[in-house]
Design brief:
This protein folds into 2 domains: 2-32 and 180-247, no CATH class; 36-162, Helix Hairpins. 75% of the residues lie in helices and 5% in strands. It contains 6 helices and 4 strands, in the order ααααββαββα. The model has no long low-confidence stretch (mean pLDDT 91).
Length: 251
């Protein structure tokens, strides 16, 4: 940026006008893209979240299925023990042994019922999870369809404007190289303050081209001399004369 010190105020103002006009062209391209870049990013984030949810539900279903399998094995073991105890009961020698075996049979029968209840509850929960999974899959399908459409629109616009955008960015960098850093900071700050992005405006009909505030004749004369950077007292925009503004065309 050291070289900018060699440029006169008029040259800096000329570069600022050129930069403003180039930035306006770039703004038009961004307006053409509209909210598409944000919408695409939002859809991508939503799809990522839905995929994560889908994976989580699938893992929960697998976990419950494993739980059911464990309970089924427990039922088999309990039923095998019941048969074993029932066979042993045929050879008992006294009431004490008979009661002990009956107690074991009763406990294993209760274990079977408890496992069956766990299986029933888990199966119902799997059914609910399966519904959630189906909803998530449908949502992903819809979102992916929307994303494909939005991406298609954005890619079409980018394809149509990419060459222009590169050229304008190149011109903007060139214009910036002719202006000192402090002035550029002011320019960028002013641009951010206004929705139309106008930081450099001509004096037209004795008024500021940005806010239409009246500019006194004496100040207009100073602006035409291009000896110093003058800003509008009302809106803070950088003011230039119409001749300078109209002499610069962006191709």
């Amino acid at each position: 940026m050291a070289a900018v010190k060699d440029f006169s105020v008029e040259e800096k103002l000329t570069s600022l006008v050129r930069l403003q006009k180039v930035d306006c062209k770039l703004d038009e391209i961004q307006i053409l893209k509209g909210e598409l870049p944000i919408e695409v990013k939002d859809l991508e984030d939503e799809i990522e979240g839905l995929h994560a949810r889908q994976t989580r539900v699938e893992e929960e279903i697998n976990g419950m299925q494993e739980f059911i399998n464990q309970k089924k094995e427990a039922i088999k073991e309990a039923e095998a023990l019941v048969k074993k105890y029932e066979k042993q009961s045929e050879n008992v020698k006294n009431n004490r042994e008979f009661e002990a075996i009956n107690k074991e049979v009763e406990m294993q029968s209760l274990e079977v019922k408890l496992c069956e209840k766990h299986i029933k509850d888990a199966t119902e929960e799997i059914g609910e999870k399966a519904k959630q999974l189906e909803i998530a899959k449908k949502a992903v399908g819809i979102k992916e369809g929307n994303l494909s459409g939005k991406k298609g629109e954005l890619e079409k616009i980018i394809g149509e404007t990419e060459k222009e955008e590169k050229q304008y960015n190149k011109q903007a960098m060139e214009a910036r190289s002719h202006v000192d850093e402090r002035l550029l900071l002011s320019y960028d700050r002013i641009r951010k303050n206004y929705r139309n992005g106008l930081a450099v405006v001509p004096v037209e009909r004795d008024s500021c081209g940005g806010c239409f505030h009246a500019i006194p004749p004496q100040k207009q004369s100073e602006i035409k001399l291009r000896k110093k950077v003058i800003v509008c007292e009302n809106c803070g925009r950088i003011l230039v004369d119409v001749d300078l503004n109209d002499s610069i065309e962006i191709k």
